[in-house]
């Protein structure tokens, strides 16, 4: 008679903690018991507990903060399709939350060498630089660094008049309709992206490095938007 193989003990820990997270025993944002506490509870080694926690991390259920402990991840504030071309503001509204924008910079300057190369414009091109914090119900979900060619803007343009959604400004004030986005996606860990009161909490991001065009393939903006990890969930529809 064949002997039934015992599942690894780490799998048992994963299963039990998944049930407890699902049932609210460990609510979103709560700190899990320490590794030592879990070792005592399940009667296993620290290596086994760490294997289980790594699996829960891969599943997106927990996160470990160096020196502070392991925490249950909060549910994303906003969900959107990565294939969707549209305004962050509208995706926040579709998620049932109130969007907000806080501008940290609005200034006219020449493009930087790396921007000129990415945008495919001459190195002496003048542009409007924007730095924004995008919020959902008051919580920061993204930091956006945007560069807009000066030639798109009115001759008497005052940078301070731009507020709120960038796409809304294009549509309502300039009559411009962004229809195409070419994006690169990166995972970023940095202490130099976030700014403002919540900056210390935000170190991990999903970066959308994106060029926006209209129907005539005219460049409208170069946007580097850093979505706060865990705050914004992208879905991608893939078909055969």
Discrete helix count? 6
Distance between the termini: 44 Å
What does the overall shape look like?
Answer: elongated
Instruction: Note poorly predicted spans.
Output: none
Order of helices and strands: HHHEEEHEHEEHEEEE
Structural class, judged by helices and strands? alpha+beta
Organism: Embleya scabrispora
Domain HTH gntR-type: 7-75
Keywords: DNA-binding, Transcription, Transcription regulation
GO molecular function, one term: DNA-binding transcription factor activity
Protein model, in words:
The structure is a single chain. The strands form three sheets. The protein has a six-stranded antiparallel β-sheet with strand order 4-5-6-9-8-7. It has a two-stranded antiparallel sheet with strand order 1-2. The longest helix is centred in the first third of the chain and has 14 residues. 24% of the residues lie in helices and 33% in strands. The chain has two domains: 64 residues, Arc Repressor Mutant, subunit A (Orthogonal Bundle), CATH 1.10.10.10; 158 residues, Chorismate lyase. The protein contains six helices and ten strands; from the N terminus they run αααβββαβαββαββββ. Helix 1 crosses helix 3 and helix 2 packs across helix 3. With 240 residues, it is α+β, with helices and mostly antiparallel strands. This is GntR family transcriptional regulator. One of its GO terms (molecular function) is DNA binding. InterPro entries: Bact_HTH_transcr_reg, Chorismate_lyase_/UTRA_dom_sf, Tscrpt_reg_HTH_GntR, UTRA, WH-like_DNA-bd_sf, WH_DNA-bd_sf. Keywords: DNA-binding, Transcription, Transcription regulation.
